[in-house]
Amino acid sequence: MGTVQRLGDTKDGGFDLKIEAKTVLEGVHLGDSIAVNGTCLTVTDFTNEDFTVGLSPETLRKTSLIELKTGSLVNLERAVQPVSRMGGHFVQGHVDGTVKADQGLLKYIVPKGFIAVDGASLTVVDVMEEEECFNFMLVAYTQQKVVIPLKEVSQKVNLEVDILGKYVERLLSSGFVDSFKGSS
Asked: Is the pLDDT of residue 40 over 80?
């Protein structure tokens, strides 16, 4: 985890976020990706104790990062390398939405499937279609390592659904599968 030091405008008219985080900085370089609460961001500056990332207007619209304050704790994760073990699912850091899982996102969420909540890869326990929500369980170890238990009721979190569901939907809607049926 890291701690927000500053969130605000830059001299050149942009917006950035500075985070104290010794644990993810070993071997970091300018241009590296670090996920902050599940949002893939590019390192624009760093020291031995903190790093800065730029925030685009799209990132501010699609994520909960705009609601962070100085002192907020955030989940941090470096980009996975192809030789790393994967203990969860492929989390890209491309946030699909925040807080309420509307039908547009809910269709990709399945019991025993994966969901990233503020960047933490979690297993879905149940999906309640009518209430437009889902639930998951956090074991004690995970609760100590992520910021989710610190959230207040109705506070925004970043959600990223499993990319495989999106690929399957796109493939099926493209007519690709039907083209095979017609050729046999």
From this structure: yes
